[in-house]
Structure formats: C-alpha cells, structure tokens
Amino acid sequence: MRHTRRAIHAALTTTRALAAAACGLVELLRYASETGRTVLIGYVKDDGTASVRPIAPEKVWRSKAGHWCLRAACLLRGEHRTFRIGRITALETA
Q1: What is the percent of the chain with per-residue pLDDT over 90, rounded to a whole number?
Q2: What is the pTM of this model?
C-alpha cells in the first residue's frame, strides 16, 4: 500500500510539473504570435522523427481532446502547419 501511494504521489508531481512547463510554453508561444516574433523549436513528430524548425507562431488553442496546439508558418517547409505543443522539446526565440 505504501509503495502504491508513493507511485501515485510521484505520478501526480510529475504531471503537475509537466502541466506547469506546458503552460509556460503556451504563454511564450502566445507572446511570440502577438508580437510577430519567430522562434526556433525542437519538435518530435508522431512517428518519433525529430527536427529543428524555425516557425512564425500565429494561433494557440486547446483541442477538443485537450491537447494544446499551435498554428504557425513553418519557415523550413514554407507552409502553414499545426503542431502539438506537447511534442515541442525545445524553444529558442529569434
């Protein structure tokens, strides 16, 4: 029983930390979209492929499934793309 409580507590602590980090990322991306700044992101696609992309954020929202999403102009591909914020691994402002 004691181990179960510790595991639950550890999972909740981790979840809260990840949620706080995601909220900070959401706010940074919202600020970048409002001020017209470009950012460099590390991103991992659904298949596990990692890339570094310069983007111009346009809109941040929460999907019906509860995922934070970002609509941005991907300067690497030259197209507008939708990114899941939970898959962004790094962020650097340009």
Answers
A1: 50
A2: 0.73
